From TrEMBL:
Keyword Signal: yes
The name this protein goes by in its record: FG-GAP repeat protein
Pfam hit, one: FG-GAP_3
SUPFAM superfamilies (alphabetical): Integrin alpha N-terminal domain
InterPro entries, A to Z: FG-GAP, Integrin_alpha_N
Entry keyword set: Signal
DNA-binding is among the record's keywords: no
Gene3D superfamilies to which the protein is assigned, alphabetical: Integrin alpha, N-terminal (2.130.10.130)
TM region positions: none
Annotated signal peptide: 1-18
Amino acid sequence: MKIALLSLLCMIPVFVHAELVDPVRLVDEDLPHAAPTMADLDGDGVRDLVVGLYRDDPYTGARFKWFRNRGSNQLPVYRASDWLRADGSDARVDEFCFTGAGPQIVDFDSDGLPDLVSGSKDGRLNVFPGLVDGSFGSPVQLTYAVGPFANRLRHNVRLFLFDWDGDGDQDLLATRMTTVWIIPNEGSPRQPRFGLPVVLMTPAGGEESFSSSVTADWDGDGRSDLVVGRWDGSIAWYRNIGEDDTDVPLQRQMLAPAKELVAPGMPRLIQIDSEQEDFRPDRPAGHVRIAVMDYDMDGDLDLLVGDAWASQVSKSNQAKLSDADVERRRDALALERELSRDLDHLQRSVDGEDDEVKAIRMKELDHLRSRCALAWRAAHGNRSHRRHGTVWFFERR
């Protein structure tokens, strides 16, 4: 009966604005709390897919999947993913409370090279500087949550970088729950300094929860609009109806009431009958992370959407732990504690090493983090409740 109900659930149509075609899944890989963007990372002239993920253990952090495009910009074809690397290790950011990694590839410091940028917990912006060989260096951490907003913007924040005031540096669009803020960069590209947030949007009545937001000229009138994703999976467009002077920075009073582009998605928690059941949604769920771009290079803007959902085995069907299972978990916990001490010692030893020794240590750190993560999953893992995510493409008609 439950499988039949899930099948019926998937048959519910995706109600989208007349401008959009029903969504297409871009890759088959399960990507918990997917946050997509596009960039040519290997210099072959074709844009690749980069997806930020939620952390699945305390050791590896929130990381980025890189799907190389073996097709063309007009017709992308993605192969198996790799972890995106930075300074000889997996690029990662600290994560807390569903923040996950939210990648953007921009020239943050105006040196002519694309940088990998993502938010993280505690109001920090992580900038992985682009290097001349096309790789990324160790991250520089910048604080964007200052003053009375420091605690409010510590976690569960989605960031979007754009030049809000036209002064040549990257400002921030910060989204958390019922508010979208602009955080101006009052410094420069090389010496950024973020000021106090300015409210750009709060929903009428406060009943909607925002999960991400971007600026884009959705209607092609030369002015930046606001496009927001919501926790229920819907996506809305706030048109900029300000004055014709396109040099005026986007402000709250310029935005028209929301126009829905995508209706709410499927439930974010799906009940399944067993751990082996493979439920594959055919439409987005909630907590959507959005990117607006001309994905298929046909001259108009499309939506790239990452979602987040979870599956849970019904309580009556959850497997009971045997005595042997309990003993294995105890052994795994003891191993995790031992490996964690080794990891802490090795991390302290990296500082001050020359480049050759540091490269060796970084490989050792990666290996040890992986062992810690495996031990943690063996000790704490719960296959009855798992996180999921998908990347979807909404084509503009």
